[in-house]
Write a structure and sequence with these properties.
The complex is a heterodimer. By secondary structure, chain A is an alpha+beta fold. Chain A contains eight helices and four strands; from the N terminus they run H-H-H-H-H-E-H-H-E-E-E-H. Chain A has a four-stranded mixed beta sheet with strand order 2-1-3-4, with helices on one face. By secondary structure, chain B is α/β, with parallel strands linked by helices. Chain B folds into four domains: about 100 residues, Roll (Ubiquitin-like (UB roll)), CATH 3.10.20.740; about 100 residues, Alpha-Beta Plaits (2-Layer Sandwich); about 130 residues, Rossmann fold; about 220 residues, 3-Layer(aba) Sandwich (Fe-only Hydrogenase (Larger Subunit), Chain L, domain 3). Helix content of chain B is about 35%, strand content about 15%. Chain B is built from 19 helices and 17 strands. In chain B, the strands form five sheets. Chain B has a five-stranded mixed beta sheet, with helices on both faces. In chain B, strands 11-10-13-14 form a four-stranded parallel beta sheet, with helices on both faces. A four-stranded mixed beta sheet of chain B has the order 12-17-16-15. In chain B, strand 1 and strand 2 form a beta hairpin. In chain B, helix 8 crosses helix 9. The longest helix of chain B has 28 residues. The relative contact order of chain B is 0.12. The chains are: A alpha+beta, B alpha/beta. At the A-B interface, helix 4 and helix 5 of A face strand 7 of B.
């Protein structure tokens, strides 16, 4: 990701107070936090053990699975639960491409740009998807919130190159036309739903 | 561990197995440049990420062929290792590394606050860099000047991560972290929020650790010049204890030499109307804090006598009492130990006591309004800037302390005005806020505040003064991070005390207090490892931590040379109570000299 100019002062809303995530939560969000807490409690983490940091990525994976993304409130909650600093959690979240602090679309399309897929033309697939959906890879989702595109490196089935994945379902040997069809099918399904 | 022999540039040296190439080279007095590496950032914590690669050397005996390795992080474990620190290959590699680093650096050295005090600049000079081969994209970030104390300009960051180490490992504040990855990686706060909104204590140890100009203090020097030159204002200045033993090194004196008289002369030459001493307020602090300590000890004894267990009695009587002079430490407890906020002494810090007295007692004496009296303090500290801006220290919207300048900033002001302290004759502080005792001088070093308090507490409990060598409480001296002692303050009455410097050590002591409130009765805490002599506004150590020993020795020398060494003997303090405050702990004293703390 390119450096975001202007990060830092002024551009992030000021958030004060220790337990801000507790105050104005919808019922849905409360249930999500409860689910995350149940998962963390199940790990049996000893907050006095220095090795607790080892659980962080696992917990963040679960949190992103539950919330869809990792906003600051969720990071702060994880930090409190694991007795880590918010900065430690934020540092890990910012390091891994997989973690996102922005909401993603309902359908997450992964396009593999690993060597094998790239050689087999995955870039043309990506270009077509970006054109059809009107969004960029690794950026904000479509305006209707249905789609976002992730560019990633190797899904682990290079024999099927080029590979596309929609919410975890793998499509092998895709062409721009196949990708377009998949998107249109989803759109039709959602329109009828 | 067994020793190994290594040959560096043809010279042989024997070192314990596992020593790094850098350590072996230092033993031979062979200089290898370093940048990210720092042997001791405080409390013995080193920074050794081996990320900058400036210390590359060529070595055989590690792999079959000669290879380039970072000297700071490559251990020597066999006798076959041979190292060349200045082979063509090593020099070229280092030059490439430095040029790459400089290719993503603003190179605005002329206007950088770290000009002439920057380790990157020194390396560029030593390497004789004239042209940077690499031209490419550069990182641009907004400057974070959201706080009153610390400014971060990430465009200048070289990712040595010393600040991150000092913030997390030494101070355990946990504000800074590595953010992002690859070219856009930077050191930032959680979610890159402004520093003012984090749990930063503004201790300024990151400022001291930063080898470049990425983290510096927010400067109020221009405002001070404007005030000095404003004919409608009376401008007074006061100097913190630790300043007098640190300014000298910037003017060619042996580091640690107290040059109090020359400092006073220099400040007068700058144009301040009166030159006062924060030491005066340190003596005042001892009167109030000593009184508070004696009161709480008496309450504790009474509660125990009434049948309470020592633990319950300690909780009921707000024991142990914690010193409250250090604003970095106060920020730390407000952020991290909200459950213990009732136990720090309610005394304001000497800086704020000084401001409160200057703007009331002294302004009344002069017959001027508080807003027309500008109070500047010279501090070894960044957190003092934050403290001075706290709303509770601005009665009716008029700040008690208008501006804070650090020791470093004062040196620059003196240079700008063409004043060399080495050429000044000794002068004396002005009256009535300039007189102080030896007890006040040692406020600038870890253990000093407690020692000063004990000297006067002894008098308050026994009605007589300590004499001879008994005045020196050696068990609380020294630069150790945590010191514990049992001290007899009156016949048959001993108190357990602890002294911690460095916020990581403070955390340890506070956790002990949380476990057992009766373990100690009095605790002194300073945020910076070693105390104010190592404050975030002091002249840079550049890795020479022996300077701290010298500054400490300077303060104890200053104390030993004073005719009066007990705070309650200060004649001007006595006068202040007689004329204005009444007695320690009086209603007026409480109104002017005490404060309260809030969870953050």
């Amino acid at each position: 990701m390119p450096p975001k100019n202007g990060e830092g002062k002024g551009l992030t809303p000021k958030v004060k107070g220790k337990n801000m995530c507790e105050c104005k939560l919808s019922e849905g969000a409360k249930a999500k936090f409860a689910e995350l807490d149940a998962f963390i409690d199940g790990l049996g983490i000893n907050v006095k053990d220095d090795r607790r940091r080892g659980y962080l990525i696992q917990v963040l994976h679960k949190a992103q699975e539950i919330f869809g993304y990792l906003p600051r409130e969720v990071q702060k909650h994880v930090a409190d639960k694991l007795a880590l600093t918010e900065a430690q959690v934020s540092g890990v979240v910012s390091f891994y491409n997989y973690f996102t602090t922005e909401p993603k679309g309902k359908y997450i399309i992964d396009i593999c740009l690993g060597t094998a897929c790239y050689v087999k033309g995955s870039e043309t697939v990506l270009n077509e998807l970006e054109r059809v959906l009107g969004i960029k890879a690794d950026a904000a989702p479509t305006a209707d919130g249905l789609f976002s595109i992730n560019a990633l490196r190797c899904v682990g089935c290079c024999g099927l190159a080029p590979v596309m994945r929609v919410n975890g379902k793998v499509y092998g040997k895709v062409t721009p036309a196949i990708a377009r069809t998949v998107v249109e099918e989803i759109k039709a399904k959602e329109a009828n739903a | 561990m067994s020793d190994v022999t290594v040959k560096i540039n043809g010279k042989q040296v024997s070192v314990p197995s596992g020593s790094t190439i850098l350590e072996a080279a230092q033993k031979l007095n062979i200089n290898i440049p370093t940048l990210c590496y720092c042997k001791d950032l405080g409390c013995g914590v080193s920074n050794k990420p081996a990320s900058c690669r400036i210390c590359l050397v060529e070595a055989t005996g590690i792999r079959p062929r000669p290879i380039l390795v970072p000297a700071c992080a490559t251990p020597i474990t066999n006798d076959r290792v041979e190292v060349w620190t200045n082979s063509q290959r090593a020099l070229n590699a280092r030059r490439t590394v430095l040029e790459l680093m400089l290719s993503d650096h603003p190179k605005d050295c002329l206007t950088c606050p770290k000009n002439q005090d920057c380790e990157l600049q020194m390396l560029a000079s030593e390497f004789g860099i004239r042209d940077i081969e690499f031209k490419g994209e550069t990182n641009k970030f907004d400057i974070d000047d959201s706080s009153e104390a610390i400014m971060r300009d990430l465009s200048k960051c070289i990712m040595c991560r010393r600040c991150e180490t000092v913030c997390n490992k030494v101070q355990t504040v946990g504000t800074l972290t590595g953010v992002g990855r690859g070219f856009s990686a930077k050191v930032g706060t959680a979610s890159m929020i402004p520093l003012a909104d984090t749990s930063c204590t503004f201790c300024g140890q990151c400022v001291n650790a930063c080898p470049v100009g990425a983290i510096t203090g927010i400067s109020y020097v221009k405002k001070v010049w404007n005030a000095i030159n404003d004919p409608t204002k009376t401008v007074v200045v006061s100097t913190a204890p630790a300043v007098r033993v640190a300014v000298g090194q910037e003017f060619g004196f042996e580091p640690g030499t107290p040059i109090t008289g020359k400092l006073v002369a220099g400040l007068r030459a700058l144009g301040f109307d009166k030159v006062f001493d924060t030491n005066f307020a340190a003596d005042l602090t001892i009167m109030e804090e000593g009184n508070e300590l004696v009161g709480r000890v008496k309450d504790l004894l009474a509660a125990v006598k009434a049948g309470k267990s020592l633990k319950d009695a300690s909780i009921a009587t707000k024991m142990p009492i914690l010193t409250s002079c250090c604003p970095g430490w106060i920020n730390f407890i407000e952020h991290n130990f909200p459950d213990l906020l009732d136990i720090p002494s309610s005394c304001k810090s000497p800086q704020q006591m000084f401001g409160a007295i200057a703007k009331s007692y002294y302004a009344e004496k002069l017959g001027i309004a508080p807003k027309d009296l500008i109070v500047v303090s010279v501090m070894p500290c960044q957190a003092k800037k934050y403290e001075a801006a706290r709303p509770e220290f601005a009665p009716n919207g008029v700040r008690d302390i208008d501006y804070v300048v650090t020791t470093r900033e004062l040196c620059k002001m003196l240079r700008e005005a063409g004043i060399n302290l080495a050429n000044m004759n000794d002068e004396k502080y002005d009256s009535p806020l300039g007189e102080s005792t030896g007890a006040a001088d040692i406020f600038g070093v870890t253990g000093g505040v407690l020692e000063a308090a004990l000297r006067s507490v002894y008098f308050m409990l026994n009605g007589k003064n300590l004499e001879g060598d008994a005045i020196n409480f050696r068990s609380v001296r020294g630069l150790d991070g945590v010191k514990e002692a049992k001290i007899e303050v009156a016949p048959g009455l001993s108190v357990s005390v602890a002294v911690a410097s460095g916020l990581g050590n403070a955390r340890k002591v506070l956790e002990m207090v949380r476990e057992d409130r009766s373990r100690f009765q009095a605790i002194e805490i300073m945020a910076c490892p070693g105390g104010c002599i190592n404050g975030g506004g002091q002249p840079y150590l550049h890795g020479h931590r022996d300077l701290l020993d010298k500054r400490m020795a300077g303060l104890y020398l200053e104390d030993a040379n004073k005719p009066l060494r007990l705070s309650h003997q200060n004649p001007d303090i006595k006068k202040l109570y007689d004329e204005y405050l009444g007695t320690p702990g009086s209603e007026k004293a409480h109104h002017l000299l005490h404060t309260h703390y809030h969870q953050k």
